[in-house]
Design goal:
By secondary structure, the chain is of the alpha+beta class. The chain has three domains: about 10-195, Beta-Lactamase; about 230-355, Beta-Lactamase (2-Layer Sandwich), CATH 3.30.450; about 380-510, Helix Hairpins (Orthogonal Bundle). Helices cover about 50% and strands about 25% of the residues. The protein is built from twelve helices and 17 strands. The strands form four sheets. Strands 9, 10, 11, 12, 13, 14 and 15 form a seven-stranded antiparallel beta sheet that branches. Strands 5-4-3-8-7-6 form a six-stranded antiparallel beta sheet, with helices on both faces. It has a two-stranded antiparallel sheet with strand order 1-2. A hairpin with a 4-residue loop joins strand 4 (about 75-85) and strand 5 (about 90). It starts with 7 loop residues before the first strand and ends with a strand.
Length: about 500
């Protein structure tokens, strides 16, 4: 390292008056830089830093200003590039270096800087290794000033001249170091502001997520006049808007001999306006044949969170046919049993869902699955209640008809009994007794039929094909009707069409 008392500029020595003017220009640049860096309410930090560095570079006649921060890499002390201003593009540029190379040249610079000593060199001072390194970037003169914050080595600011071989004047070194400190403090202040802003944004996002979950929980627990589909459309929409989701679906598991299967039982889609019809092609599919890696994650109660492109090729190809770009699939466990999962789809952005969104979607998945289960239970309850009412109505109708059937033979028995009380001949008495006997047999058959029907729930009888004698049954019916006519001293005449078959097919109950 060489330090000189003279400030050489463009190959000639600057005289005292020139040095004074140079120092005044430096002071003026310092004041302008401070003003710019301290008043950037409406501008971006990068824009303000660009203007400040341009002012400094013009005053110092340098072509590039680079900020390096002290960091560790692989357990070694290194210098990592943070900002880089380049005159050739008149502004900040993309970083051409990440860490400075870990070699003897940069190690020597770092050791010097950590001792709070500046590096002030030109071509004639460099070793062969240093020259080879500097030539890559067209550097002919360099000034490196260390920066310490709160007694700790932060890093350094490097000023490069790509045109002139020179040493930076000793009278200006204090100003140069001040410029470095001012710029670094602005960078630190900007980083802290960004950290604070990020923390505020995170807090707001957490608040938004908690509000979304709270709204969903309240909606599902409250008594609502909305239909299930309308309720799900609204509540899924809250999560979809919060997390940037385009489609959501609920899947239920069931076990078969060939492995674990799944079926899509609910589907929400933004472009269709909410709840939409599930796809028949997803009514009964296997994990093994579609998403084998997912089953392993779900069995360990882990979520799938990834851009589709990074998934196994066969799974990615299948998912991409449905427009999926990124997915989050949360398993749902009911009573410690793997019930199914809820799939959240992003059709526009490649991303891993952040931890707070992941927690939101896992909680929402459980709420949505429970809502689907509850809706199914309500539908089953309504169906069971309807069937019970139908059965009760059928029972009432049956008892009404059976009562009527039992009243008919009872009327015959009572009618014949009244006739027997009247003085009649032996022939009429015999006829009445026969009618009473026939009615009693019919009443007994009805009672047996009731017993047979009551045994239906216990499979106590079977129904078989048989035949019945129509002529006999019709004549018996006429005898029962004729009792009323006889009691009223009336006559009933009838005629049977001979074309009616005597025997007709029937179903007969056989008791077991």
């Amino acid at each position: 390292m060489n330090m000189r008392e003279k400030f050489e500029f463009n190959g000639s020595e600057i005289q005292p008056n020139d040095a004074a003017r140079q120092r005044a220009a430096m002071v003026n640049a310092l004041n302008k830089a401070i003003e710019k860096l301290c008043s950037h309410a409406e501008e971006t930090f990068e824009g303000v830093l660009t203007d400040a560095l341009r002012t400094i570079a013009d005053a110092m006649s340098v072509n590039r200003i680079v900020f390096y921060r002290h960091a560790e890499a692989d357990g070694e002390d290194r210098l990592k590039q943070t900002y880089r201003w380049d005159k050739s593009v008149n502004g900040l540029t993309d970083k051409s270096l990440d860490f400075l190379p870990d070699d003897q040249t940069t190690a020597g610079w770092l050791k010097t800087l950590q001792q709070d000593v500046c590096v002030n060199q030109q071509l004639c001072d460099w070793s062969r290794e240093e020259l080879a390194f500097m030539n890559q970037f067209g550097v002919k003169s360099v000034f490196m000033t260390p920066v310490f914050t709160h007694g700790t080595f932060w890093g350094c600011v490097i000023f490069q001249d790509h045109i002139n071989e020179r040493y930076f004047d000793d009278d200006c070194i204090d100003l140069i170091r001040s410029l470095g400190h001012i710029c670094v403090n602005s960078i630190i202040r900007h980083e802290k502001t960004q950290i604070a802003k990020k923390a505020r944004d995170t807090l707001k996002r957490h608040e938004k997520i908690l509000n979304a979950l709270n709204k969903i929980a309240v909606a599902f627990l409250a008594q609502s006049s909305k239909t299930f589909n309308d309720l799900m459309t609204d509540e899924v929409g809250i999560i979809a808007d919060t997390a940037g989701i385009d489609r959501l679906s609920v899947w239920r598991n069931f076990q078969k001999p060939d492995g674990l299967h799944m079926s899509q039982i609910y589907r929400w889609e933004r472009k269709n306006g909410g709840t939409t019809q599930t796809l028949d092609k997803f009514a009964d599919i296997t994990y093994a044949g579609h998403t084998p890696s997912w089953e392993k994650f779900f069995m360990e109660n882990k979520a799938v969170n990834s851009p589709v492109r990074l998934m196994p090729a066969n799974e990615a190809a299948m998912l991409q046919t449905f427009g999926m770009v990124s997915v989050f699939a949360a398993p749902v466990y009911i009573n410690n049993s793997f019930w199914g999962f809820v799939l959240f789809e992003d059709h526009h952005n490649e991303r891993f869902f952040s931890e707070d969104y992941a927690e939101l979607m896992r909680s929402a998945a459980f709420l949505f699955a429970n809502a689907v289960i509850r809706a199914e239970m309500e539908r089953e309850t309504i169906t069971a209640l309807f069937e019970a009412r139908q059965a009760n109505r059928a029972k009432s109708e049956f008892l009404s008809r059976m009562s009527h059937e039992m009243l008919t033979p009872m009327n015959v028995i009572m009618g014949m009994t009244q006739i027997l009380k009247m003085p009649r001949g032996s022939g009429e008495t015999k006829n009445c007794l026969e009618e009473i006997e026939a009615a009693s047999r019919r009443l007994l058959r009805l009672i047996y039929n009731l017993l047979d029907i009551s045994g239906n729930n216990n499979n106590a009888f079977t129904i078989v094909n048989s035949v019945f004698n129509f002529d006999k049954i019709f004549r018996e019916l006429l005898k029962k009707i004729n009792c009323d006519f006889t009691a009223k001293l009336q006559t009933l005449n009838y005629d049977i069409d001979p074309s009616i078959p005597i025997l007709l097919p029937s179903l007969t109950v056989n008791r077991l």
